[in-house]
Amino acid sequence: PYRVLGVGRSSSQADIKKAYKRLAREWHPDKNKDPGAEDKFIQISKAYEILSNEEKRANFDRYGDVGESQGFSQQQHRQFHRFHDGFYFDESFFHFPFNSERRDTSDEKYLLHFSHYINEIVPDSFKKPYLIKITSDWCFSCIHIEPVWKEVAQELEALGAGIGVVHAGYERRLAHHLGAHSTPTLLGLINGKITFFHNAVVRENLRQFVENLLPGNLVEKITDKNYIRFLSHWRKDNKPHVLLFDHMPVVPLLYKLAAFAYRDYLSFGYVYVGLRGTEELSSQYNINVYTPTMMVFKEHIDRPADVVQAREMKKQLIDDFLSQNKFLMVARLTSQRLFQELCPVKKSHRQRKHCVVLLTEEEEKFAEAYEAFLTFAVANTKDTLRFVHIYSNRQPEFADALLMDEEKYHGRSAVVILERRNNAGKIAYKALEEAWQGSKEDNFILLDLLDQLRTDPGLLSSETVVADLNDELAPMFLIRWFYSTLDYISDCWDSLFHSNWREMMPLLSLLFSALFILFGTVIVQAFSDSSDTRDPPPSGKEETAAKTEKNDASFSKESNSRIPKKGFVEVTELTDINYTSNLVRLRPGHMNVVLILSNSTKTPLLQKFALEVYTFTGSSSLHFSFLSLDKHREWLEYLLEFAQDAAPIPNQYDKHFLERDYTGYVLALNGHKKYFCLFKPHRSGDEGGTMGSCEDYDALQHAEARGKSSCSPGSRSIKNKLHKLSFWMERLLEGSLQRFYIPSWPALD
């Protein structure tokens, strides 16, 4: 940081501040069009953030390291280790990457960019969950969690989870899209939905966080009592069923991640072989209880279709095993997506793949024909053939396109050999001349046709166009709507208690606007009617006198023991005595609206300020104060440094710098959350029409208090500084104003 600002280690705070202002003015992105100006400006700001804080500066002077050995000799190194007896100190802990070349290389392969995230990561999150870290340069907390992050990232990646890193300094758009407003931030992404991590960054919590992202019904616990029911669901689910036998009491995360990746194709069960009540299951399938075993069951539940055993199940081994067993031997065509996967479009003459389709129905009388077709498929499985079946009553358009509604197939099963020609639904096919009954003669005829097809592709002489298949397993509309509603409520609940309030502000604004429209008008009307009934309208003289009395009661120094009345605005001076109670320890949800003024502008600015904010005094969460610029200019300038472009740095740093006029500035200070909103004075030249007149209210006030008119040009110019302050207050209550955050409130000396 010293090198970035160009100052020495013995430089005073004034020298550091002066160097920062000069460099910030030179490298501000709005003034410097150099491509690297923005990164340079960030480095300057971060360097000043460290060196302007005495505690951070002391820590850096004592332990900091920017890739050089300055200020930390071998003698100091030995003394440090003698002082911290038995404590290991890694010098790389305080490594500050000033540019992309100095960044930690372990995160480079995980770095995400906005387009890469939208086009690849989000779609891939429907196959595996992602753990994403948002980091930045000069982030001490990021460095603190780095060892844990490296360990967990390597472990989860080996298990099948996705890992991502977003550098907030270089990918601001992506960081904002993810809703990360501070660093470090850890979040999970699954099915396109973002979930924030809120616990301590330790290995167990991060593993549990990723595991909690997964749906709870991915893997079913299987025992002797329910294994037959589980395996028999293949006909209803139209999926093979996978059983993992292991001696771990809980389902391994590796198995859960594999189940999530293949949940559209397979159903998963877990058998804890050490549990009483699994002996029959282990004995029937001859399971070695000391070696993890994975079995896949298809149409026959008495024997597995495939088995794999290994002392250490690895992700690659599981992926290879599951990808080879994604479908039943004779899968049922239940959707267009499944049809496209099982019967792909012909790409070339050497990559032909034919589908042998059994068109049948669900009734029991068709079971024999189906079993014969299944036996034939098991005996004649080839890479170029795919055996499937379809229920004609559930897919009538598909069946009519192939069978042409011929009488000989009515109420009977039929077999068709087809090949998809394009994605538009065009297929070439040939149907068996007679209905399929599963006899030996039918088997011979079908086998002969398949043999001819290998040498004569022109055998599929008929062509037709079939419509897309209906999705038979899709949930009903009401069920989809119900689950969508639950997801939305869950998101709102999570956002309400965990997410940044910036994300919730549009929803809250809409909600409160609707409530105001519904009830606000009625309440205001009711109070207006009751007020009109009690208090008759005063005469002109009484009204003028009342206004004068209100102003005197509001702004006179001698009216400390007044009784509040209608039109009264309590504005207190912010001093070192009430600074802690009125700002630093202000209750959550409360804000202090502070007017900046000088001794010469105090009376006119306070009068205009009271007129502008009077309509907002009904809110108990707003407090109104004023700050003397003559006494606390340094405190104000420190705050304005955190406001972008709020107080532009002058061209020269000289005595005129201290004479800048801040009168008329208004700060809305949130003491609990440590941010403020800024109102800049309105230039009097913007509205020429208001310069030629003076309000009666002001004329009466000054005529009575000073004995002369208040319509002087100087008075009007000062009051016009607070023009449109009421509109700014409305935006403040809406939450639509820009917020400037500060690390801590400075002392008000």
Chain-wise SSE layout:
Elements: H1 2-5, H2 13-27, H3 37-51, H4 54-63, H5 74-83, H6 114-124, E1 130-135, H7 140-159, E2 162-167, H8 172-178, E3 185-190, E4 193-196, H9 203-213, E5 219-221, H10 227-231, H11 234-237, E6 241-246, H12 253-261, E7 267-272, H13 279-284, E8 293-297, E9 306-309, H14 315-323, E10 331-332, H15 336-342, E11 354-360, H16 367-379, E12 385-391, H17 396-403, E13 414-420, E14 426-431, H18 440-455, E15 462-465, H19 477-497, H20 501-534, H21 540-555, E16 572-573, H22 579-584, E17 591-597, H23 602-613, E18 622-628, H24 629-640, E19 666-670, E20 675-679, H25 696-705, H26 713-719, H27 725-734, E21 740-741
What does this entry look like structurally?
Helices cover about 40% and strands about 15% of the residues. The chain is an alpha/beta fold. It folds into five domains: about 1-60, Helix Hairpins (Orthogonal Bundle), CATH 1.10.287; about 110-215, Glutaredoxin, CATH 3.40.30; about 220-325, 3-Layer(aba) Sandwich (Glutaredoxin); about 335-465, Glutaredoxin; about 570-650 and about 660-685 and about 715-740, 3-Layer(aba) Sandwich (Glutaredoxin). The chain has a six-stranded mixed beta sheet, with helices on both faces. A six-stranded mixed beta sheet has the order 16-18-17-19-20-21. Helix 2 runs antiparallel to helix 3 and helix 21 crosses helix 25. The radius of gyration is 38 Å and the shape is elongated. This is DnaJ homolog subfamily C member 16.
